[in-house]
Design brief:
Distance between the termini: 36 Å
Structural class: alpha/beta
Order of helices and strands: EEEHEHEEEHEHEHEHHEEEHHH
Helix content: 25-40%
Bound molecules: adenosine-5'-diphosphate
Largest sheet: 9 strands, mixed
Strand order of the largest sheet: 5-4-1-8-9-10-11-12-13
Number of helices: 10
Strand content: 15-25%
Radius of gyration: 19 Å
Shape: globular
Length: 314
């Protein structure tokens, strides 16, 4: 039996829409204010759970209603929450103001993220029990993970787990300075185009993959938005086109993609099949507002893929 220990941030998202302008000292009436789940760790674990994989989440929430809301949602997707810690500060929260064009103005209170993983964490026996894969989702999002993410990957590798890192965006622009150590213990790296450029200085995928390999990575999965994805392994690159969908909100697409790719690998699929499945899961996720609301179960995705058009008609 395989399972993923998924580590990363857990965020309470408040989506407010539509907001066309901001004027201080006035009240705006809006169509909806919705509570949803965000955070790369929570989204990826949720996707794995929805897709039928065994998954345990390692992350932090506050002892507050926002945290309870997130735990309920994750539990409903079958995520094992025994690795979720409660800190003193409130659950990390983002308020997203969405205008009629879909652009966002984000207000983020990191809350408990600032105390999460402050001490070098230990992957003890209860956390590792039944797990075969360790996934680090966006170490740049949590200061403690930026410092100690590599220690978690090293312990996971030492315990015999396969490791992956979804790098995320570095808002401090330190990129490889802070990620190099983590990559040394990473088997599989997930990156989007902007992150690839930030980390390697190259927008050529083969060259970037070789740079990642130089740091110790064995497989690089490039998320290419509307162009789908590309998988690099053993000097070969496979490109897999995206599915044609009506895009409503691309937030969380990368997390759904990573969760689906890992779920497929865990089931023994080859990288090209996993990439196609991940493109499908992520394509469905962008058809609805919210990071994971559009995601469907495995059978539904597979049925959808059989008929869905691929972009560029490939
Ligand atoms: P991230 O969300 O990490 O920035 P991307 O924007 O590349 O990553 O999105 C992740 C995946 O979501 C893509 O690899 C693709 O499979 C899917 N995706 C994103 N945007 C679209 C789109 N416009 N049409 C179809 N699929 C998309």
């Amino acid at each position: 039996m395989s399972g993923v220990l998924c580590c990363g941030n857990i965020v309470f998202d408040v989506l407010v829409r539509p907001v066309s302008e901001l004027r201080w000292n006035t009240t705006h009436w809006v169509d909806s204010i919705r509570h949803t789940m965000g955070g790369n760790g929570a989204n990826t674990a949720f996707a794995l759970g929805v897709l039928g994989a065994r998954v345990r989440l390692l992350g932090w929430i506050g002892a507050d209603p926002a945290g309870a809301f997130l735990l309920d949602k994750l539990a409903a997707a079958g995520v094992d929450l025994s690795g979720v810690r409660r800190g003193r500060a409130p659950t990390a929260t983002t308020v997203s103001l969405v205008n009629p064009q879909g652009d966002r103005f984000l207000l983020h209170a990191p809350g408990v993220s600032l105390e999460a993983f402050a001490d070098p964490p230990e992957l003890d026996a209860p956390l590792l029990e039944g797990m075969t894969h360790f996934h680090l989702a966006n170490p740049f999002a949590i200061p403690g993970l930026r410092r100690h993410g590599h220690a978690l990957l090293r312990q996971a590798r030492a315990a015999g787990l396969v490791t992956s890192t979804d790098t995320g965006w570095d808002q401090h622009g330190r990129w490889m300075q802070d990620l190099a150590q983590a990559l040394a213990w990473t088997d599989l790296v997930f990156v989007n185009r902007e992150e690839t450029l930030g980390l390697t200085g190259s927008s050529d995928l083969c060259e970037a993959a070789r740079i990642f390999a130089g740091y110790g990575v064995r497989m690089a999965v490039f998320k290419l938005g509307a162009e789908g994805c590309a998988v690099w392994r053993d000097g070969e690159i496979i490109r897999v086109p995206a599915f044609e969908v009506e895009v409503v909100d691309t937030t969380g697409a990368g997390d759904c993609f990573a969760g689906a790719y890992l779920a497929a690998l865990l089931e023994g699929r080859d990288p090209a099949t996993a990439a196609r499945f991940a493109n499908a899961a992520a394509a469905l996720s962008v058809t609805q507002l919210g990071a994971t609301e559009g995601l469907r179960g495995r059978d539904e995705i597979e049925a959808w893929m059989r008929a869905a058009p691929v972009r560029g008609g490939a």
